[in-house]
Amino acid sequence: EEGLDMDISEGGEDVVAEEGLDMDIGEGSEEEVAEDMAIGEGGDEAATRIQAMYRGKKERASVALQKEEALHRQQLEAAAVKIQAIQRGKLDRKRIQNMTGGAESEG
């Protein structure tokens, strides 16, 4: 028995499943796969494919969440750096004003 090649696609991304399966799936296709692989002779294989697709979808969602959290952390760090730079500039201007005796020339 030769292994089937199946690409599991979701959102335009192709993922190669275990055992080199090649099949394009979309929304609601888990049921179609189960119907195509009639329960009985290939029932275990169909169940395994459905489980693999579910685990893959779950993992992709987890990775997307991790990327979103990393982006949020980067944005918070950038905001903190900006606040610190503004505060340092304010303190430096105040120190310079105190060193010059409060008489800065304008213009």
Short description:
This protein is mainly alpha-helical and 107 residues long. The protein is 61% helix and 7% strand. It has helices at 29-36, 43-99; strands at 7-10, 13-16.
Feature tags:
107 residues; mainly alpha; two-stranded antiparallel ribbon; 61% helix; disordered N terminus
Topology:
Blueprint: E1 7-10, E2 13-16, H1 29-36, H2 43-99
Antiparallel strand pairs: 1-2
Helix pairs in contact: 1-2
Structure overview:
The structure is a single chain. Helix 1 packs antiparallel against helix 2 (43-99). This protein is 61% helix and 7% strand. With 107 residues, it is mainly alpha-helical. 6% of the residues are buried. Residues 1-7 and 12-18 have low confidence and may be disordered. A hairpin with a 2-residue loop joins strand 1 and strand 2 (13-16). A two-stranded antiparallel ribbon has the order 1-2. The protein is rod-shaped and about 90 Å long.
